[in-house]
Amino acid sequence: MWAICKKEFRQFFSNLTGYITIILFLLLNGLFLFVFSSFNILDFGYATLENFFNLAPYILLLLIPAVTMRLFPDEKRAGTLEILFTRPLTARQIVMGKFIASLFVVLIALLPTLTYLFTIKAMSAEGTVLDMGGITGSYIGLLFLCAAFTAIGLCSSSFTGNPVVAFLLSAFLCFVLYSGFGALSKLGGTGIDYIVEMIGMEFHYRSLSKGVIDSRDLVYFLSIICFTLFITIQRIGRKN
């Protein structure tokens, strides 16, 4: 499993595509948070990263599918997936190796965003106390959201041999699971609006962002991760 993880990690940074993907993620965050007025932290009036945590999931909807879209299509096109099965590797080890490598790449992209915390603290008025509980909870929610998006992207790539199709399918599924149920619950008239909203990732992400680590939110994300990884393992195992 770790051999697969190291191979995928090295392969992602073996060309400019990997670096450009991460740079674009950070550039988009920087432009929205410090230039564009709709999310501009400088115009918000408070020492908070709330705008960043509201914006980040939507940028991750593009970043993570770009990271995962080639994981299995490239293997299928090059014929190396069959070679992997000749090694002492199970479908679970192959899938988990690719999942961990992809998630690690996404976490590397998130790491520089910690500088926003020091930037806000430096620009805030003297004596201002940041809501570290909310910020910590938001980062924890973001980590689980990244893991869920990565698992969905990996699963999507296992269903097609075309990276573009894998990207579009992954982005669509992530968007629907994150925002779709919340938007559906706001239509009203169903009588189960709250239950519908709870099905979506956004509800649980917002809950963690309040700084309260609720086991129900963690179980929700872990369930999505395990379920999508299970489907991927079954899909790849069937090809063995």
TrEMBL record:
<dbReference type="GO" id="GO:0140359">
    <property type="term" value="F:ABC-type transporter activity"/>
</dbReference>
<dbReference type="Pfam" id="PF12679">
    <property type="entry name" value="ABC2_membrane_2"/>
</dbReference>
<keyword id="KW-1133">Transmembrane helix</keyword>
<dbReference type="GO" id="GO:0005886">
    <property type="term" value="C:plasma membrane"/>
</dbReference>
<keyword id="KW-1003">Cell membrane</keyword>
<protein>
    <submittedName>
        <fullName>Gliding motility-associated ABC transporter permease subunit GldF</fullName>
    </submittedName>
</protein>
<feature type="transmembrane region" description="Helical">
    <location>
        <begin position="55"/>
        <end position="73"/>
    </location>
</feature>
<feature type="transmembrane region" description="Helical">
    <location>
        <begin position="12"/>
        <end position="35"/>
    </location>
</feature>
<keyword id="KW-0472">Membrane</keyword>
<feature type="transmembrane region" description="Helical">
    <location>
        <begin position="164"/>
        <end position="184"/>
    </location>
</feature>
<feature type="transmembrane region" description="Helical">
    <location>
        <begin position="138"/>
        <end position="157"/>
    </location>
</feature>
<dbReference type="InterPro" id="IPR051449">
    <property type="entry name" value="ABC-2_transporter_component"/>
</dbReference>
<feature type="transmembrane region" description="Helical">
    <location>
        <begin position="218"/>
        <end position="237"/>
    </location>
</feature>
<dbReference type="InterPro" id="IPR019860">
    <property type="entry name" value="Motility-assoc_ABC_perm_GldF"/>
</dbReference>
<keyword id="KW-0812">Transmembrane</keyword>
<feature type="transmembrane region" description="Helical">
    <location>
        <begin position="94"/>
        <end position="118"/>
    </location>
</feature>
